[in-house]
Amino acid sequence: MRNASQDVMEEWKNLDENWRKKNKIIERPPTLNIKRSSYEMSRHRTRPPTYGILRKTDLVCIDNSEIGKDANMSGRLAYCIWVYKKEYRKRHMPKATLGDKILVAIRGEMRRAIVVGARQHYFIRKHGIPSTDTNNIVLLDDKENPIGNRVLGPMPSHLMRLREKQPILQKVCALGKKFF
C-alpha cells in the first residue's frame, strides 16, 4: 500500500534533469512542512492567548486584598460576569482590554475590578502595548477605590497613559511598583 509521500517521491524522480536546472529546482525531495503560528514557536508562553476578556474568563487578582489572596490560593480564580463599556449592542457584551472596568465573581461575591493585564492574541495586539500570560485584575470596593494597598505583580506602562482619562487608574497606578 502506497502513501502520499511515496507518490510525491516517485513524481520527483520522473522529472527531467534539464527542466529542473532550467527552473532552478533544488536536488532534494520536498518535505511536508506544517506551518506553525508564532505563538506555538515561542517558548516563554505558558497559556494560549485570548481575543479579549469576556463572560466566564478566568482572572488572577494581583493586589494584596484578602479576598484576592484567598481566591488565588484556593485555585478558584475570579471570573468575569460583566464588562462596563459603552460600545455594545443588545445581547452582545463587549470585550474588556487594559484599563476597563469589569464585574467579577470572586469567592461567592460580586466585585468590581480594573483589568491591569490582558492575555491577547497576536492578531489584536496593538503596537507598544505588551501582553501577559494571565488576565490580571485589581479589585475595587463600592466607592471605586482599590481594596488592597499594594499591587504585587507588574503592570503595563500603557496604563500610565490611560490614567488621564480614567481617575480610577490614577489610584491603581499609584499602588504599583513594577511597570513594563
From TrEMBL:
Family of the protein in this entry: Belongs to the universal ribosomal protein uL14 family.
Name under which the protein is recorded: Large ribosomal subunit protein uL14m
Source species: Meloidogyne hapla (Root-knot nematode worm)
GO biological process, one term: translation
Key words, A-Z: Mitochondrion, Ribonucleoprotein, Ribosomal protein, Transit peptide
Signal peptide per UniProt: none
PANTHER family: 39S RIBOSOMAL PROTEIN L14, MITOCHONDRIAL, LARGE RIBOSOMAL SUBUNIT PROTEIN UL14M
Superkingdom, taxonomy of origin: Eukaryota
InterPro entries, per database record: Ribosomal_uL14, Ribosomal_uL14_sf
